[in-house]
Specification:
hydrolase; Helicase; globular; 6-stranded mixed β-sheet; about 160 residues; alpha+beta; helicase activity
Length: about 160
């Protein structure tokens, strides 16, 4: 279960900083964008972590294919604001020991928060993923076009 505290944008950014959460430029873009909706009400969500393989895609799939399948299974996409709260609460995420750079692929050990993009532009971040590397917790934004294919072992968070 993830608790969304109903913080305003300034309070949320301060809390991320106080929690020693690192952000990449894409995450900063998403958090600063006026389309990034923040609820002023405190609420909680039950989440589930699945791989593309768990969703029935042993060879991987596009974002649309996976999100459609998840919804057919009764899962929902996460509100975008869930990602920073999940990052602050998921402090025991296993560390990425590989540390390898994988271009145009989700980094090893990362967990992508399944959410609707706030922009259709390919150059604007589509969402967030969580990563733990070099002893530091990261909330990172990512860009991907509609043709991007996720690997079978890529991990995602959905709402139950």
């Amino acid at each position: 279960m993830v608790i969304i505290d109903g913080l305003n944008r300034e309070e949320l950014m301060k809390q991320l900083q106080q929690s020693s959460i690192h952000l990449n430029a894409y995450a900063e873009m998403l958090l600063a964008d006026e389309r990034f909706m923040i609820s002023s009400t405190r609420y909680s969500l039950h989440t589930v972590e699945l791989t593309a393989r768990n969703l029935g895609f042993p060879d991987g799939a596009t974002t649309e294919q996976m999100f459609t399948k998840a919804q057919q299974l009764g899962l929902k996409l996460c509100p975008l604001e869930l990602a920073p709260y999940l990052r602050m609460q998921y402090i025991d995420q296993p560390e990425d020991m590989e540390g390898e750079v994988r271009h145009n692929q989700a980094p090893s050990g990362s967990v992508t928060v399944a959410s609707e993009p706030i922009s259709e532009e390919d150059t604007f971040p589509k969402g967030f993923y969580l990563r733990h590397m070099h002893g530091e917790l990261w909330l990172r934004g990512y860009c991907a076009d509609d043709l991007h294919s996720w690997n079978a072992n890529d991990r995602f968070i959905f709402v139950k």
